[in-house]
UniProtKB/TrEMBL annotation:
The active site is at 306, 358, 367. Residues 27-65, 106-380 form the Glycoside hydrolase family domain. The lineage of its organism: Eukaryota, Viridiplantae, Streptophyta, Embryophyta, Tracheophyta. It comes from the Eukaryota. Its EC number is 3.2.1.4. It is an enzyme of class 3 (hydrolase). It comes from Rehmannia glutinosa (Chinese foxglove). This is Endoglucanase. PROSITE patterns: GH9_2, GH9_3.
Length: 389
């Protein structure tokens, strides 16, 4: 075994492990960096163990009333008790109790006052409008059933008029696949009978997976380099979410000793892991451009990420204020690498032709998002454990 490492300034190594001259990716290092990305998204008073040093305190007065806690918090007996507690286990128990008390009320409220949120908050619809509410409601109920074993939620799922059908993607705006997979897990475990709507939800989840892994009736398009292709804008968001669903389902199949019946044959747990790994490997550099689409992983990665904090010099280096217009004039349009490396961020990714234009104004390809990273964290954890030295 031979290990080749390159030092990334101020942070840990990026390593490739060579076994019998076959190079593999260090998924553990990628996992660490994927979590560092979230530290660059923090606001408020930063903790003493903050590792992304270019990030400073921010939004310290958001939600405050008269310089103290928010008005809601000032009058909250729950918050007062939490501040008095020293035992973190007791704190967790109180929060859990408070959440459990609110769940039935929230469920009834959502069921009686259903609708798209931008109908109440119209300005939000200009940026991130919702295409529907049925997916969020079904997913929430599936989680509530999982957490409480309350038959009220199971009955809602069983009687739901919209199970989503076979979806094309799993995203922040379309969560049907998440609900379908949770129900499928219950069916596989023998918790639910595989009848009616529950069985249909399971079938929908599995057909989505079949289409992703190229063994279904309506396979997802792929680039010539092997990357799943969903949309032109932030395609990797949908790749990472698909990879997460596929990886999680591999565990479900392994734990229940079952397979998926796709149009092109039976598919087992290792088939799913192998496919998810191919997508992660592409993201981390095994692609026609030999470019990592995780910032800071490897030597060739996006340098002009579409991210305000990363693209403007840190206040720790230059304390002069930067107005909104200054940000555009002096930094956004500057043809130079970002002054701050957004370690671990997953950008939108390449186009259908496997090409990537590294430019800050190319927001469709160069913009990172928590929705890009979140599913990948789980996949990297699985791969790091499966392919550990």
């Amino acid at each position: 075994m031979r290990r080749q490492c390159c030092w990334i300034p101020r942070f840990d190594q990026f390593c490739q492990i060579s076994v019998n001259n076959v190079v593999s990716i260090d998924y553990g290092a990628a996992l660490t960096k994927s979590l560092l990305f979230y530290e660059a998204q923090r606001s408020g008073k930063l903790p003493s163990n903050q590792r992304i040093q270019w990030r400073g305190d921010s939004a310290l007065s958001d939600g405050q009333s008269d310089g103290g806690l928010s008005e809601l918090a000032q009058h909250s007996e729950l918050v007062r008790k939490l501040e008095m507690l020293k035992d973190p286990h007791k704190m967790l128990n109180i929060w859990t109790f408070a959440i459990a008390l609110s769940l039935p009320w929230l469920f009834e409220f959502a069921r009686k006052h259903s609708g798209q949120y931008q109908n109440s908050i119209s300005v939000a619809g200009q940026f991130y409008s919702s295409s529907g509410y049925e997916d969020e409601l079904l997913w929430a109920v599936a989680w509530l059933e999982r957490a409480t074993n309350d038959n009220t939620y199971l009955e809602f799922i069983t009687q739901s008029w919209n199970n989503g059908g076979i979806r094309r993607m799993f995203s922040w705006d379309d969560k049907f696949v998440g609900a379908q997979v949770l129900v499928a897990k219950g069916v596989l475990e023998g918790k639910f009978s595989g009848n009616g709507n529950l069985d249909q939800l399971k079938n929908n989840a599995e057909q989505y997976i079949c289409n992703c892994i190229q063994k279904g009736y309506s396979n997802v398009q792929k680039t010539n380099g092997g990357l799943l292709w969903f949309l032109e804008w932030a395609n990797l968001q949908y790749v990472t979410s698909a990879s997460f669903i596929i990886t999680a389902y591999a565990d479900f199949l392994a734990n229940t000793n079952t397979t998926i019946q796709c149009a092109n044959g039976a598919v087992g747990p290792q088939d799913l892991i192998d496919f998810a790994k191919s997508q992660v490997d592409y993201i981390l550099g095994s692609n026609p451009n030999q470019m990592s689409y995780m910032v800071g992983f490897g030597l060739n990665y996006p340098k002009q990420v579409h991210h305000r904090g990363a693209s403007i010099v840190s206040i720790k280096k230059d304390s002069r204020p930067v107005s909104c217009q200054d940000g555009f004039n002096e930094w956004f349009h500057k043809n130079a690498e970002n002054p701050n490396v957004l370690i671990g961020a997953i950008v939108g990714g390449p186009d259908l032709g496997d090409q990537y234009r590294d430019s800050r104004d190319n927001y469709q390809q160069a913009e990172p998002a928590t929705a890009n990273n979140a599913p990948l964290v789980g996949v990297l954890a699985k791969l790091a454990a499966a392919y550990a030295e």
